[in-house]
Design goal:
- The chain has 120 residues and is of the alpha+beta class.
- It is 45% helix and 28% strand.
- Strands 2-1-5-4-3 form a 5-stranded antiparallel beta sheet, sandwiched between helices.
- The chain is globular and about 35 Å long.
Length: 120
């Protein structure tokens, strides 16, 4: 039941913008809870890297007195990776195209993370 609800939220998120290529919900320790990832991506690897980056972002924000971490954004020449907390127990990771309109994606991801946080 919870898995279906998470997949529904991810499906809505991916459908909200043509710029979103994939998304996933992971526990803060990197275990995959739900995902809409391309078949070529290893879920375990995505989970481990997302959890590590978000943990490092949390620590960096704290150590440099920037307040509570809201999101981690990575930009590569082939697109973006956006990670944000979804409650205290989960992380939402989104892969977006290189020419993505980030403002709209930030809003959509924030809404999805809030909904996921209510479920978990």
């Amino acid at each position: 039941m919870r898995s279906e609800m998470l997949n529904s939220i991810l499906s809505d998120l991916n459908g909200s913008s043509a710029d979103i290529e994939a998304s996933a919900v992971l526990s803060t320790d990197g275990l995959m809870m739900a995902s809409l990832l391309p078949g070529s991506m290893d879920e375990d690897r995505v989970g481990a890297m997302s959890a590590a980056m978000l943990s490092l972002g949390d620590r960096t924000a704290e150590e440099l007195a920037r307040g509570a971490l809201e999101q981690v954004l990575i930009k590569g020449d082939k697109g973006y990776i956006l990670m944000t907390h979804a409650g205290k127990e989960a992380v939402v990771t989104v892969l977006a195209k290189p020419n993505a309109r980030l403002g709209l994606i930030f809003l959509d991801v924030k809404r999805a993370a809030e909904n996921i946080g209510k479920i978990i």
